[in-house]
User: Fold this.
Amino acid sequence: MIKTVRIGIIGSGGIAHAHINQYKRLPNVQIVGVADVVPGKAKQFVDSLSLTDTQAFEDHRKLLELDLDGVSICTPNVSHHVTTVDALRAGKHVLLEKPMSVTLAEAVDMVKATKESGKILTIGFQPRYDPNMKLVQDIVQSGKLGKVYYVETGGGRRRGMPGGTFIRKDLAGAGAMADIGCYSLDMALNAMGYPRPLTVSSFTSNHFGTNKLYHPEADRFEVEDFGVAMIRFENDLVLQFKISWAMHMDTLGSTMFLGTDGGLKVNPAGTGNWSGVWDGKVGDLTLFHDFMGQPTSTPIPIIEHTQDLFFEKVRDFVDAVSEGHPAPIPGEQILIQQAIIDGVLRSSELKREVAIELPY
Ligand SMILES: NC(=O)c1ccc[n+]([C@@H]2O[C@H](COP(=O)([O-])OP(=O)(O)OC[C@H]3O[C@@H](n4cnc5c(N)ncnc54)[C@H](O)[C@@H]3O)[C@@H](O)[C@H]2O)c1
Assistant:
């Protein structure tokens, strides 16, 4: 018999709806409680979804006193650290929304708490569940490209700046890099097996976000809306990372892997003001290689699928909890991303190359 997995949800805003909708599709899940700091918000959330057996709280620590197996953390970035560490220390497994944290120090602390608790901390990057993401990883890791020495990733929206907590440095940590850059960084780094970063030289700006012409909250816009970074890794690998929430350009280019025997280009799906960045869907794939001594390019058919990636991410977490598997997308791995973002921010402030600080 399948064990019932008892779940709590911390934060009942936009993305919490996506979590709950997926949990409701899983017959072995019971939504035991929801917490939100805004008075009455969790109760309203529970009532609006007719979750009659689900308790509502204003303090996540009260929710954590319940008999739960795991929690989804759906709060703004600034609260990821405290809620995750509290949940782990209370002995609950954690599915945490991206990005992992506001600061690198928080991410390090979260990994420490994970190790001490023996529980799972998995970060919610649903694009990982796209079979084309796996295809990219398989091609890169197959050796067909030879030694990969250069990777370029990121991209840009022509217009696509969020507001609210997303544009406050203390609440979000970083802007476009953390919000959408984390997806393309994850694709590239995951395909490369999350290599160890060494140094970064970067530039960031926020010409659009701080201009009333482009952003209604320009007066309180504190993060970067554009960033470019050159990141060095162990084993003579370099990654160029470009990201933008707004720009006078259609795209900042494709993701590409350059190897000694071949190259792989990954285009984002679609076009338009929001689509020139890779943040979830593979548009098309091309392999560049020599054939009979001639430079040749071969389109690689992308895998058509009907999978709901968000459902897959929630189901994978539930399966890991109920079957005792390791974290599907471990916090320890995504800590590397946080270290890179931390280095990018320091480098752009100091206007020089800096070492990327990893705790191990
Ligand atoms: N995976 C995705 O596709 C995806 C999409 C959108 C947002 N996100 C991520 O999800 C997170 C939440 O984003 P959102 O758009 O739902 O934000 P939101 O502002 O709509 O909702 C966040 C909720 O958390 C509550 N909250 C804040 N601090 C809390 C605390 N300490 N305890 C309990 N509740 C607390 C707020 O009151 C709010 O109701 C962000 O980290 C964001 O990056 C992920």
The mean pLDDT is 94. The pocket of nicotinamide-adenine-dinucleotide is lined by residues 10-16, 35-38, 41, 60, 74-77, 79, 83, 97-98, 124, 126 (CB under 6 Å). The chain is about 30% helix and 25% strand.
